[in-house]
Design brief:
The structure is a homodimer of 437-residue chains.
Chain A (H helix, E strand, L loop, with lengths): L3 E6 L3 H12 L1 H8 L3 E7 L14 E3 L2 H5 L6 E4 L7 H10 L3 E4 L2 H18 L3 E2 L10 H8 L5 E7 L2 H13 L3 H11 L7 H4 L2 H15 L9 E2 L7 H9 L2 E11 L4 E11 L11 E8 L3 E8 L3 H17 L31 E11 L4 H11 L4 E7 L7 E8 L2 E2 H12 L4 E10 L6
Parallel strand pairs in A: 1-2, 1-4, 2-3, 4-5, 5-6, 8-10, 10-17
Antiparallel strand pairs in A: 7-9, 7-11, 9-10, 11-12, 13-15, 13-16, 13-17, 14-15
Helix pairs in contact in A: 1-12, 4-5, 5-10, 7-8
Cofactor (chains A, B): a metal cation
Keywords (chains A, B): Amino-acid biosynthesis, Metal-binding, Methionine biosynthesis, NAD, NADP, Oxidoreductase, Threonine biosynthesis
EC number (chains A, B): 1.1.1.3
């Protein structure tokens, strides 16, 4: 059979990696796919600065030329960002072309519109590379766990954030210090907001939750909290108590609705996912039949991302001639079978908590605090009291609570902060046991 | 669309679990598959002793009735063992039915024959449940990593063995003692040979290696060593040196051929896979583009296995109407593109080693031993010498070596065992760093 001709938008890190892997492993890939895959047309904003080997490709600086090329059967969108990516993808779809994209921001924000257009035109939009880099987590959730009611998932889905938290723990360093190093190493962008404020993770969580629960993409409903306020003291105290702090995306289905939240989280150090360090990613998924499963690998980088992009191309090639109705639905569930379960406001989520407070070092203070928790019906799991340093009148008190609604915790914290014997704000970090039940 | 009718062979643990999950999650599954799945006909050796809810199924004690039922589109083989499973599967294929099986022994030993028959009749044989229970590892390797040249994989693929080794380490217990407990708990069979001698793991490794490297199934060429000779002392010494002992299936592609081996293995304790404990399974796969990825979950049990069986049914349902040539090939690679790379004999494999020897407690002994290694070109990584206990004239010496051919190590060990100052045989456990390169 003739090779399938694909058009590549973007020849940066991932685009170059995709071109390189397709070339290097051409034999291996066509032995699997039963058909060659050839980049026939590629677009880059600035062709002169591109480092990929572009032998045999038609080249342009106008991405619309690729999207409108009648020879191209599959468009690979590796530009990133909302626009012009959205317009290009919609144009490709309108032209009857299948699309493979690594663009999580685009799918999280415009996926509902894009998938509707794709259905109308009978084409596929594949996005394995949008979450977890080279880890085939989209495929695992959409296909591998198809027998399950997914109960919850929790993922380390931003490598930059995980690198920073790992360094803070291993070396007792401060956030700002490690961030500067991550920027120097190229792990963090010059503007690190998307990574350290959790927006990138929220994009990915939006996608994971939709395919896990069969709900529309609802990026604007994700509760998102970054890691910028995590101190090395919190990391150390968590360690003393047998926990590690990870920046998690958590999605959970409850009777009332769906929890969608990205925030720093204490996890028991004996959990496998607590030991996922550096820039690596992992997603833990709990299905009712399969129990807990975990998927681990490189969450970013040229070739890991290329691995996912090319797997998607092979998948699309296999189903080029199939009836659209028999294909794996974009959001795992048939489009007319999506659930309208509401996404819960953060006040309605239920989780355990790590709290740190500065308390006057005199008798009775702890009794006042624990009385407030008792009144609110919040059970305490552990208390750790640190003697005040020489220059401070206040002791540090760490409290771990059992699971409680965020709303109740907010009320309790407000009462505690109003105590004369407590200085400043209470630091609160959510805690998840991620046990299998 | 009408529900797809499937026939179920075997209503034991996995068969019952499959029936239960299909019923409980019928809504969830058909929301994904776009079509209902209905067990219309089921066979069990003894229907009276079956605990599954069989409402609405035609029942028989003759499995061939199911295989020959014209209404059945997909046959689910959950009987296990070689026969009559092989004959039933071949008959189902001859009747033009697709097959889903959890039978690793059958696929490892008779897969080449079965897949050839399936191709001739244009049907699929799916076997996700044959390896790693509910972990979608077959899908990850065949499809998710399709862009990669797989360099090696290493898996904890027998839950019983991993439970025993975990208990030995956590509680300092002996092998025989833990095995008896595992049998009482139902984690180990009355005849535990398949688990503790590595045969079950070898079946699974055979399958993983074929789909990773595109080679025919070659079960009889797997080097297989069980865990029965692991002592609690070895587990403790390994721990002192920063390693854990796991029973691994290892497959590696070298320039000369394929290494296929199942044996106890020391792994650095900081590796994620070293922390996979109890009955859980995990497979670590190194691809040239994606780097290391890991897949973790329950490797056995009624519902985890059912999860994989049903995922396969959904996959088969999706491709019922597709051209056979476009389907994912049984062994990941197109049947005419399999590799004839030879499987290497164990003497040709390359690995690091943990050695334990009993040496006379006098000067010069260690010099003799290290001289033998130096002569053989074997580099030593670490030596740990234990003072002899009061009742013994011999000290215990632990040596970790760097990577070397097994053939060279055999020769060195023979020379060491011939020394007057060494008592008894040298204990040898292989050691793998499982680093990402």
């Amino acid at each position: 059979m003739n090779p399938v001709k694909v058009g590549l938008l973007g020849l940066g890190t991932v685009g170059g990696g995709t071109a390189n892997v397709l070339r290097r492993n051409a034999g291996e890939i066509s032995r699997r796919a039963g058909r060659g895959i050839e980049i026939s047309h590629a677009a880059a904003r600035n062709l002169d600065s591109t480092k990929a080997d572009m032998t045999g490709m038609k080249l342009t600086e106008d991405a619309f030329e690729v999207v409108n090329d009648p020879e191209v059967a599959i468009v690979i969108e590796l530009i990133g960002g909302y626009e012009p990516a959205r317009t290009l993808v919609l144009q490709a779809i309108a032209n009857g072309k299948h699309v493979v994209t690594a663009n999580k921001a685009l799918i999280a924000r415009h996926g509902n519109e894009i998938f509707t257009a794709a259905r109308e035109h009978g084409v596929m939009v594949a996005f394995e590379a949008a979450v977890g880099g080279g880890i085939p987590i989209i495929k695992a959730l959409r296909e591998g766990l198809a027998a399950n009611r997914i109960e919850w998932l929790a993922g380390i889905i931003n490598g930059t954030g995980n690198f920073i938290l790992t360094e803070m723990r291993d070396k007792g360093r401060d956030f700002a210090d490690v961030l500067a190093e991550a920027q120097a190493l190229g792990y963090a962008e010059a503007d690190p907001t998307f990574d350290v404020e959790g927006i990138d993770a929220a994009h990915k969580l939006t996608i994971l939750a939709s395919i896990a629960f069969g709900i529309p993409l609802q990026f604007d409903k994700v509760y998102t909290e970054g890691i910028t306020r995590i101190t090395r003291e919190d990391v150390a105290y968590a360690g003393e108590l047998g926990y590690r702090i990870k920046h998690l995306g958590v999605a959970r289905a409850t009777d009332e609705g769906i929890e969608l939240r990205v925030h720093p989280t204490l996890i028991p150090e004996r959990r496998l996912i607590a030991n996922v360090d550096g820039v690596m990613n992992a997603v833990l998924v709990k299905g009712d039949a399969v129990g807990p499963t975990l998927y681990y690998g490189a969450g970013a980088g040229a070739e890991p991302t290329a691995s996912a992009v090319i797997a998607d191309i092979v998948d699309v090639v296999r189903t080029l001639s199939s009836e659209p109705a028999t294909r794996v639905p974009h959001l795992a569930f048939q489009p007319d079978a999506l659930s309208d379960k509401p996404v819960l406001p953060v006040e309605a989520i239920e989780t355990a908590y790590y709290l740190r407070l500065q308390a006057a070092d005199k008798p009775g203070v702890l009794a006042e605090v624990t009385r407030i928790f008792a009144d609110a019906g919040i059970s305490i799991e552990a208390i750790l009291q640190k003697e005040p340093p020489a220059d401070s009148p206040d002791a540090t008190v760490i409290i771990l609570t059992q699971r409680v609604r965020e709303r109740q915790m907010n009320a309790a914290i407000a009462r505690i902060e109003a105590l004369d014997t407590i200085s400043g704000a209470v630091t609160r970090i959510r805690l998840e046991h991620l046990a299998s039940n």
